[in-house]
Amino acid sequence: MLPLNLPTFAAKVTEKKGRRMIYDIIRRKYVALTSEEWVRQHFIHYLVAEKRYPKELLANEVTIRLNGTVKRCDTVAYNRFLTPYMIIEYKSPSITLTMAVFDQIARYNMTLQVRYLIVSNGMQHFCCEMNYDTQSYTFLKEIPFYSE
């Protein structure tokens, strides 16, 4: 797999029925190793190891209802009160992070109303902090530590 703009980690990769699989520490099982999953696993390990996010407060493939349809958030981080705190959307490294990607995560946020939105393709990462009082957002230079 392609090297990413994220710290490396000791990925557990195996093969089952001719398909490459990677161990997901959040779902505690092997999942199909796609380029998007490669980004997700790197980003999850980065959040846990570097930014001190408790892995027990992270969830992958979170189902939400939006305008009568079922959608899945790639990753949701929760605060200590189990309220959604951050939504993270991953794309393959070959996908350019456009306004359409932000529109997708913004739609998810209509339901969850989190403090932070992040999009990453493994090469670029964008994080914005929501301000619901002014109905605005601010792009941050860095991904916040969990304690912030």
Describe the structure.
The chain is of the alpha+beta class and 148 residues long. The protein has a single domain, classed as tt1808, chain A. Helix content is 20%, strand content 39%. It is built from two helices and nine strands; from the N terminus they run βββαβββαβββ. The chain has a six-stranded mixed β-sheet, with helices on both faces. The longest helix is centred in the first third of the chain and has 15 residues. It is globular. The protein starts with 12 loop residues before the first strand and ends in an 8-residue tail after the last strand. The mean pLDDT is 94.
Shape: globular
- Helix share bin: 10-25%
Indicate the radius of gyration in whole angstroms: 15 Å
Mean pLDDT: 94
Largest sheet: 6 strands, mixed
CATH architecture call: Alpha-Beta Complex
Could you give a quick summary of the protein structure above?
The protein is α+β, with helices and mostly antiparallel strands. It has a single domain, classed as Alpha-Beta Complex (tt1808, chain A).
Relevant terms:
single chain; 148 residues; alpha+beta; tt1808, chain A; three-stranded antiparallel sheet; 2 helices; 9 strands; globular
